[in-house]
């Protein structure tokens, strides 16, 4: 393994150990940053992310564009956290899809991209999620890969490129998967009159306790689960579960009748601007 990649992976593992996450668990990057003492704020500016701190190292802050899709914000946040972990100075980033493929020629950027990938998508965690569903990497469908990226909160393409970079799948499989897009999958699941938006798939194997979405996003849940409150509106019973659209900010509980499955969905307003810790409040506070 390349020394730079090893450094990134070890740093990601150290962060997990510090916050008592194992090598399998998905993490919520916004909550994780706050636990590490960083301020995370969403701003309405056309960029990706910005990492700043005082000259004495105090008040480390990550600024994220509210104009980007939710999974993109997650990767950017992890990327900016990497700048903090490796003690880089002021950084403003305009990430590209190629950057998530570890393709940057800038050593610092390659380091933090590798860190972000290892933190958000640990190889052991990816293998565990596929194994519990009895799915084989080289035979898994685009929709199955999309289910896994929903678990880790990353983009579909980001997961595939990460799997290819870590030799979980080969180039041929990656190319085949990349011919499909989330938009195509959405259209294959929902009727034509349903407006396209970012969506997550939750199945019976998902063990997340908290799922983040924003207003106008969709989530597909197992048919037998009960959604409390009026934050979600049922849209369509798809072939893999019941599709809901998020209609207002707040927190909603989802559970099975026997409570063997139970988790919360936190919903923030679309293009929310403000501190990350307040993002899901029904009456926004800053």
Structure write-up:
The protein is α+β, with helices and mostly antiparallel strands. It has 3 domains: 3-120, Arc Repressor Mutant, subunit A; 125-183, no CATH class; 185-278, Immunoglobulin-like, CATH 2.60.40. Helix content is 35%, strand content 20%. The protein has helices spanning 3-18, 29-35, 70-85, 107-120, 123-132, 142-152, 156-165, 171-178, 182-189; strands spanning 39-43, 49-52, 61-65, 91-93, 199-201, 210-214, 218-221, 226-227, 232-237, 242-246, 250-255, 262-268, 274-275. A 5-stranded mixed sheet has the order 4-2-3-1-13. It has a 4-stranded mixed sheet with strand order 5-7-10-9. The protein has a 4-stranded mixed sheet with strand order 6-12-11-8, with no helix packed on it. β2 and β3 (61-65) form a beta hairpin. α1 crosses α4, α3 (70-85) crosses α4 and α7 packs antiparallel against α8 (171-178). The longest helix has 16 residues, at 3-18. The radius of gyration is 18 Å and the shape is globular.
| Helical segment count | 9
Q: How many individual β-strands?
A: 13
Q: Which percent range describes the beta-strand content?
A: 15-25%
Described by its quaternary structure, the protein is single chain
Kindly name the structural category: alpha+beta
Strand order of the largest sheet: 4-2-3-1-13
- What's the CATH topology name of the largest domain? Arc Repressor Mutant, subunit A
Q: Main β-sheet: number of strands, strand sense, barrel status? A: 5 strands, mixed
Q: CATH architecture of the largest domain, please? A: Orthogonal Bundle
* Domains, number: 3
Query: What's the CATH first level of the largest domain?
Result: Mainly Alpha
Q: What gross morphology would you assign? A: globular
Low-pLDDT residue spans: 95-103
Radius of gyration: 18 Å
Mean pLDDT: 92
Element order, helices and strands? HHEEEHEHHHHHHEEEEEEEEE
């Amino acid at each position: 393994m390349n020394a730079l990649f090893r450094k990134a992976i070890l740093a990601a593992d150290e962060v997990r150990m510090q916050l008592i996450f194992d090598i399998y668990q998905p993490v919520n990057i916004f909550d994780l940053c706050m636990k590490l003492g960083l301020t995370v704020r969403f701003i309405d500016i056309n960029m990706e992310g910005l990492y700043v701190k005082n000259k004495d190292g105090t008040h480390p802050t990550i600024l994220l564009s509210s104009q980007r899709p939710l999974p993109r914000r997650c990767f950017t946040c992890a990327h900016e956290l990497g700048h903090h972990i490796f003690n880089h100075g002021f950084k403003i980033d305009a990430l590209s899809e190629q950057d998530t493929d570890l393709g940057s020629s800038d050593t610092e950027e390659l380091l933090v991209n590798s860190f972000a990938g290892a933190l958000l998508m640990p190889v052991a965690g990816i293998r565990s999620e596929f194994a519990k569903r009895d799915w084989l990497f080289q035979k898994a469908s685009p929709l199955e890969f999309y289910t896994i990226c929903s678990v880790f909160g990353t983009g579909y393409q980001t997961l595939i490129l990460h799997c290819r970079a870590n030799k979980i799948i080969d180039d041929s499989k990656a190319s085949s998967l990349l011919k499909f897009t989330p938009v195509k999958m959405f259209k294959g699941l929902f009727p034509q009159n349903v407006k396209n938006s970012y969506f997550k798939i939750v199945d019976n194997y998902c063990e997340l306790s908290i799922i983040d979405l924003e207003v106008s996003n969709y989530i597909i849940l197992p048919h037998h689960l009960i959604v409390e409150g009026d934050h979600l509106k049922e849209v369509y019973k798809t072939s893999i579960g019941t599709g809901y659209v998020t209609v207002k900010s707040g927190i909603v509980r989802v559970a099975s009748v026997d409570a063997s499955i139970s988790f919360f969905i936190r919903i923030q307003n679309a293009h929310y601007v403000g501190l990350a810790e307040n993002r899901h409040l029904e009456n926004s506070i800053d």
